[in-house]
Amino acid sequence: MTKQNSASPLPPPKERRRLRESRSLTLDQVAERIGVSRTTLHAWESGRGLPGGAEGEAYARLLAALALTPLTPPAGDRRRVPAPACALENLTPTQAFDALYVFCTPALVRQAYLLCGSRELAREAVERAFQLAWQRWPVVARDRDPAGWVRAVAYDCALSPWHRFRPRHRYPEPPPADPADRALLHALLELPPSYRRTLVLYDGVGLDLPETAAETEASTPAAANRLTHAREAVAARIPELADPAELHRRLLELASADRLRAAGPSLVRTVGERRNVFWTRTAIAFTVTIIGATTLTLRTAPTHYEPPIAPAQAVQGVPLRAAAGPLSHDEQTLRTKLRRSESSGPERVRPLAG
């Protein structure tokens, strides 16, 4: 193993990548400047390789120069200057959210398109991710990587299997017009979701392997295995993409082929707040319904045990109850005579002499 030059100490791998990205330099630009391949430079930035020799010394000098060079943007381009810490701290939550949205949305929509193959679904996934971020903004604002938090949620929304049951997304959108882009998109969509996500993060976004493993919630060996199988599957369909550098370039071209636009930050915040209010009211109504049903049950439910009434049964062997029959003619005559003599007859019946 080549030893590192002690006269030019190198920063940690993550710091190397941060210095390069802070100056808006790509891997290809730095690799061409120091005379190494893009794969070698990527290994140095991910910690899988140790710089050495003349190239390592040139790399160390370049990093030292980047660390000492102030961030002075070219004239007419002030967007590359990061905001001072004091200015970021003075931003209101709305301003901070809008700044994060404007900065991340264009790239996130293109990445989501590579994952789902639908322009409308990609925009919807990114907007939904930012709506969730606005609902949990205190947590997201304190996160060490707010952009990574939103990216993870957007990827989950784009790869959700429930979209196939929605009528809006049941039928696929028209494929890209370029046959090469159409073949690459078809190859990506044929990959399992976990392989597709790993490939986009590593070869599309440019994360290193540990960061890719952390974002996909997998171990580093598992992420490396997914990446290897994904590259092999894409290379089997498109042999010219066996080179990782060419695959990275083609992914960027495919993502940038169409102009994918999302809604404005104010609209996303408004829709998120309305959605939050709707679900809050729904939860309150559901809770009130449950409480009312419980109260009604307690009021109408029996408070003691009531034995059930036994079913009726026929009783045999009981004699019939005797009833008076119709009166005879003599009995009817006597009854009539008695009724007539009640008011005009003698007060006392006297016995007749014998």
Name the CATH class of the domain at 92-255.
Answer: Mainly Alpha
CATH homologous superfamily annotation of the domain at 92-255: PhyR, sigma-like (SL) domain
Q: What order do the SSEs take from the amino end to the carboxyl end, as H and E?
A: HHHHHHHHHHHHHHHH
Termini gap: 162 Å
Q: What is the CATH architecture descriptor of the domain at 92-255?
A: Up-down Bundle
Strand percentage lies at: under 5%
Report the biggest beta sheet as strand number plus sense, adding barrel if it closes. none
CATH third-tier fold name of the domain at 92-255: Butyryl-CoA Dehydrogenase, subunit A, domain 3
Q: What oligomeric state do these chains adopt? A: single chain
What is the number of E strands? 0
The average pLDDT value, as a whole number, equals 80
**Rg over alpha carbons:** 44 Å
Global morphology? rod-shaped
Domain HTH cro/C1-type: 17-51
Biased composition (Basic and acidic residues): 328-354
Keywords: DNA-binding, Sigma factor, Transcription, Transcription regulation
GO molecular function, one term: DNA binding
